[in-house]
């Protein structure tokens, strides 16, 4: 009887170990563009790097906290959304914050398909066509964003600010944080709502756009904004 119980326990732990090793995972890679010495944490795991590239391979938490330290001082910290079986590639710069660059499927036809940072490797089977590949459009360059930021800041009327946003969004994209900076320049809450809706289609991280609800002074505008997002 003891042997049977021992055998059952061994099978249980073997199965549990196998399941843990083979459960869906994700990867998170980060490129820091500013010079300096950094350490990056993803939840409790940390990585150092001499070339500004940080790699986390076995990520099981779908909403981990990423923290960036420079000289042992935290300079950036936020939750990020991670998709199982995908590599999330991020970039960070002090003047731009954190942006999503790409999301790549880790496997193609059950083969590990990625290179050492931000693309598919050359050894992947030619027949492995990935229909779910997603490359997130890049946001405005730092130079273009600074120019737009100045134009909107200097524009006296909210209607003019909205027109500038509409023109810029036809040829460029925004992160949620960039939108936050620009929408703060509006004088009136109702017009801010118009601007927020106008550039929604050009937001490269729409999953974060709901966080702009705190920009609205009036609850009616906040409710309208959230209802707008809910309809998308």
Question: What does this entry look like structurally?
Answer:
This protein has helices at residues 2-22, 142-154, 158-171, 176-183, 189-198, 219-230; strands at residues 26-32, 38-42, 45-49, 53-59, 65-70, 73-79, 86-93, 97-105, 107-108, 111-112. The strands form 3 sheets. Strands 4-1-7-8 form a 4-stranded mixed beta sheet, with no helix packed on it. A 4-stranded antiparallel beta sheet has the order 3-2-5-6, with no helix packed on it. With 232 residues, the protein is an alpha+beta fold. Helix 2 (142-154) runs antiparallel to helix 3, helix 3 packs parallel to helix 5 (189-198) and helix 5 (189-198) runs parallel beside helix 6.
Query: Roughly what fraction of the amino acids lie in strands?
Result: 25-35%
- Estimate the mean pLDDT confidence: 82
Q: Return the structural class.
A: alpha+beta
Output the radius of gyration: 22 Å
Helices and strands, in N-to-C order?
Answer: HEEEEEEEEEEHHHHH
What is the CATH homologous superfamily assignment of the largest domain?
Carboxypeptidase-like, regulatory domain
Tally of distinct domains: 2
Number of helices: 6
Gap from first CA to last CA:
60 Å
| CATH architecture label of the largest domain | Sandwich
Q: What fold name goes in the CATH topology slot of the largest domain? A: Immunoglobulin-like
Write out the strand line-up for the largest beta sheet, numbering strands in chain order.
4-1-7-8
Note the overall shape: globular
Q: Which runs of at least 5 residues are low in confidence (pLDDT < 50)?
A: 11-23, 124-136
Instruction: Please report the first level of CATH classification, the CATH class of the largest domain.
Output: Mainly Beta
